[in-house]
Give the backbone structure.
Amino acid sequence: MFRVNAIMVTWLVWNVLLVHVFCQGNKPSIVVTPYQATRYGTSTIVIQCTVSSSPVATSVGWKKVSLIDGTSQEIDSQHHYESYQMADSMVNPHLTITNIAFSHQADYICFATNEAGTGQSNYGRINVTIDIPSVTVTPEIQFPFEDTSKIIIKCYITSLPTASTVGWQRTSLDGYSTVTIVVANSNGKYHVDNSLEYPHLTINDISLADDAYYACFAINDAGKGISNRSRVDVLKSPLAVSVPVTEYSASIGSRVTLQCSITLGTATEVKWLKNNNIIMMTARLSEGNVKSPSLTINSVEQGDLGYYVCHATDGVRIVNSDDILLIPSDVRMRVEVPVTQYSPTLLSNVKLQCEVTGSATSVKWFKNNNLIVIANNPRYSGGNLNSPSLTIISVKEDDFGYYTCQVTNGVDILNADQIAVLPKGIPPVVSVPQQLSAPIIGQQFIIPCTTESTSSSLKEIQWIRIDFKGKIIDPIITSSQQPIKYQGSIVDNPSLVIHDYQSSDDGRYRCRAINNWGSSVSDAVLVTTESK
């Protein structure tokens, strides 16, 4: 009997132990993103974490493992200032890191705990990368004269993180010697702006010794970035040309010399241009070169008349003289209009007077700066060399505007004073009340407008609004589409209707009326929900 009881007790103990073991379950199984590379300064990166646990995990967390010495540090609420944030989940407690810096480069471990114990993930590594600084300088080349007081070479640096060191280096023209510029030892020769992004270089008291290549450099944790080279090409003296006479009058068949001289520097080439085209020298066109810069024209022809320029270069710079005008020796061309305003009635004829003297070869007329095609147009007569004045036959409303009589002799183009052709009528009269009662928020408000047009029927009504900040709406657009804000403002109902009035509608309002003879605008009336 005692033996049977012992066996039963042993069986019961084993069952209790087995039930406890099987009910306890397994420690959590955890997987995280194994590797991610990100640039310094990236705003956000997320390390994914997936927890498989039965029973469900009761707590989760993260550890950061140093890549230098392998020490680990648990990430909790006290690290929020280091831009870590863990998702509030027992299944996916992803870790978000913001404003990526070098301090974030490490291995990360996600861990979770349940009744069976604590499990941890594989390593999730964050590798923070950067580029060497990007550096550019401008200009790529400049040509200061000797004894110039100073020049500036600009440097632009893009670096994340910000460069820790910036500077300049100078390379000789043969490329064999490159030295770093030390401002402190330059006796005021160089100055570098105190900036890690724009350390522009100033070179003072330019001399031939400054003829070299210059480059800007910047250093960050990734290395050294060097800019393109900027050439400083120092010139001994400036180049200049002079023309003592800028207008010559020559008769056909005569001989004329257009004077030009090199007054500064040494020219390596001299050319002449006529009407912006290079002249090819012939037996009739002579000199105009380095030894004799002046241009001689033998036996002047009609085609020689025009504008000339003496053009010189020293191989680096190009300079041009003032324009030289060669005109015929007869009477100088002139164009005048004795009357500058006409007010014809509709369907009448009007003659716009234009008087031309001298050797004009063409007469043209323009309306509102657009060329009028007169030939074969029955509405116009004249407007040519034989009869420069322009007659408009049976005036229409479209004929009103501004006219210009233009003449040319093949060299010069002259415009007469502008002629205004205005309608013989008066614009409408328009008015609004000088004072209105205050509108009520949310209700309709009407601003009356009174018009009178005696010489022509009204064509259009417009309204103008000026708010208290000076912003102008001209014109106010009315619409029948919902929601309707503005109505009225038409010939039959010139008053302005404002629906659902709000304080933002406050301001000064003006009414404009338009007829065939022009437009008139009323005085401004103040409309405001505030007490006046």
Notes: Residues 16-23 have pLDDT under 50 and may be disordered. The longest helix spans residues 2-24.
